[in-house]
Design brief:
mainly alpha
Length: about 210
Amino acid sequence: MPVGTPNPPAAERDARTRLLDAALRVIRGRGYPATTVDDLCAEAGVTKGSFFHHFKSKEALALAAIDYWNEMTGALFAQAPYHAPEDPRERVLAYLDFRARLLQGAPEDFTCLLGTMVQETFATHPVLRDACERGIRGHAATVATDLALAKARYAPDAPWEAMTVALYTQAVLQGAFILAKAQGGPQVAHACVDLLRTHIETLLPS
């Protein structure tokens, strides 16, 4: 917002936020192609006029929803208890335990907006694809920080790179989300995260 521009009325801010919240719920549940502007308005409880006041298109809302998702999940992970251990190896393992605890409810409750959207838009909406990739890579970079510290302490001569392993953790998680959707529940995702944790333990032998 330009300097000197007054803040929009609270009702307008609320409508925009409701549309963003609706995008997270509906797109994760139905997928991006199957989600319509009417669906988003109905979920948010706003008119189409309000929608187009805030967003020029469904793609524009989806792009804003990616940023919104990154802000919310970034805050969630930044405040999560897995940062507490002094030992970086323990922080990495605690991160995976925290991811496992998030696997609750129906698949649309715990799966990733970015992973869902990028699978459906990578060839048709490059702006969304690139935004999703930046979000996934950005989160992986936070995991890579602790992995690099743990590698220096426990496996300094290992041939793997911290960022490569961090991206691998995200690949396993996103694949686990796909399997959870296919099976209609989190059990298979829990099994995948358990095996991922075991693998990381072998990369960082104590």
